[in-house]
Specification:
By secondary structure, the protein is mainly alpha-helical. 51% of the residues lie in helices and 9% in strands. It contains 6 helices and 2 strands; from the N terminus they run αααββααα.
Length: 136
């Protein structure tokens, strides 16, 4: 039977875990963003790999960082032969940006906002009223 010998854990892909233990879509991006928010300093792909300590390939992290940069979530500055990446805004700003993108994707903005407000807790509804100011 051709192919690779099983690794000690019984898989045949040399322990790379293809098809098993994969992260859900966006999970790696979320892990990287959380890390970048906690360190408060731009990191290179190699530094991200070291901090995450998950055995991820440098190229996987570099590609993920580049995609986040392309989407405008991260800014990058040259550092040596690589780039160092940092979030463009804090976590609250990223959440607000995501909410706006979801709103922009809807067909009926008023209905989307109405349903959003309908699902708020009484405390969040009151907070929103305070944020919107008098008469809201």
């Amino acid at each position: 039977m051709g192919g690779q010998e099983p690794s000690p854990d019984g898989d045949r892909d040399g322990g790379r875990g293809r098809g098993r233990g994969r992260r859900a879509n966006g999970a790696l991006e979320s892990e990287i963003l959380a890390l970048l928010h906690t360190v408060d300093a731009p990191l290179t792909p190699g530094e991200v790999v070291e901090h995450l300590a998950t055995g991820l390939a440098h190229t996987t992290v570099a590609t993920t960082l580049a995609r986040l940069h392309t989407r405008g979530v991260l800014e990058r500055t040259p550092r040596g032969r690589s780039y160092a990446y940092a979030p463009v805004t804090d976590e609250s700003g990223l959440t607000a940006r995501h909410m706006r993108q979801v709103m922009d994707g809807g067909h009926d903005r008023a209905l989307v906002l109405s349903r959003f407000v309908d699902e708020l807790s009484p405390e969040d509804e009151e907070l929103l009223r305070r944020l919107l100011g008098p008469g809201a």
